[in-house]
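Input.
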Amino acid sequence: MRRICATKIVATLGPATSDSATIEALFKAGADVFRLNFSHGVHEDHKKRYDQLRALEAKTGRPIAILADLQGPKLRVGTFKAGSAKLVAGAMFRFDMDATPGDEGRAPLRHPEIFAALSPGQHLLVDDGKLRLEALETSPTHALCKVLVGGTISDRKGVNVPGTVLPISALTEKDRRDLDFALELGVDWIALSFVQRPDDMAEAKKLVQGRAGVCAKLEKPSAIERLEEIVELADAVMVARGDLGVEMPPEDVPALQKRIVRTARKLGRPVIVATQMLESMIEAPTPTRAEASDVATAVYDGADAVMLSAETASGKHPVEAVSMMERIIGRVERDPLYRPIMDADHSAPEATASDAITAAAAQVARTIKAAAIVTFTTSGSTALRAARERPEAPILCLTQNVRTARRLVLCWGTHTHVSDEFASFTKMVEKACEVAKAEGFADPGDTIAITAGVPFGTPGATNILRIAWIG
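Output.
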């Protein structure tokens, strides 16, 4: 199954998409990467979906990428005597470590790390920013606040402290258990929530030890302050716009999205744009025009993938949501404006042989109107370089490593194929022609551009560019 669209679709699985038939329908509609959200469900649920996806992979003969999204720390208020309380603007309100249920004057907040980082003048946001309070007096065990924006506060609502790096790891004990379980299953990507600093990425990568790619979810303003460092350490990044929009003014998020996408593309990291992309399709069979424009903007920016969350996990129209997203992507990529934008907005190659060969392959493919660029890769670095160029020709990636093939499914414009080992470069060229024809990329008489590294199997050693004709 060759995808026509270069931009990939990430679909979240959940109660609405738990049977094999629906998952297969999502795949056929255009989903390339499937997200297991560890904020919901139990391990047995995720294992069942993982097994269904691997069975689908075997049935279709196409590598499928599976992303395990860790929950991360959830900072929440405690409970209330009546289940909720009304906060009035201008009133005083106290958060403290006392577990006694709260009322209109106070609430338990059993997170010492918040009090440790809080100082007078800082704001606390409750329930995704619906309530806003200003800290007037702080200590290691409490904060006396003034209510700036009132409303109803109820049991276990989330708390955010914008503009503050909290002394807390991005990985809770639950996340560590989930991480071990996901890696044991064999997922291809781990999405790390609550990234505040480069150290969070370093900690996660040390635990993962190369068994999966690590995707940094950029949802905290503190992460944006050290964006390049975090992206450098990550294997991929996700623009988690919903959480960014809680701690930052909504008008700042579009510009941040563009900045993150551009940084990721410059550094050659796949980038996913996520959250509320087709939100109305949770209930409705079609999206709003604004949502269609939102998806299109991410595609014009050159994102590697766009993501559906509740639309496919619990929505009423999961297959239609994927199909709609695929149609929007296809329409943008056929737009005459799309190619000039891609050509104008990518970084110059680094001063290495591998980058020089890859940039040359994109230019050669354009000049001779090649049907495809074929890359041979062990680690995936050759295909990542090719994708960074955003070439006109599709990228056909051949690898002996099925884990590499699955991981590269996330990358823009990349179609992966698991192949056998090659005895010689001549055999490699023959295989490239054979697969390009069999997978529907090229017909007899077409040309393809081939990049590879000799000696074979040396990661990052792309040093050959060859033009071949399809017989």
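The chain has three domains: 8-72+170-333, 84-160, 353-469.
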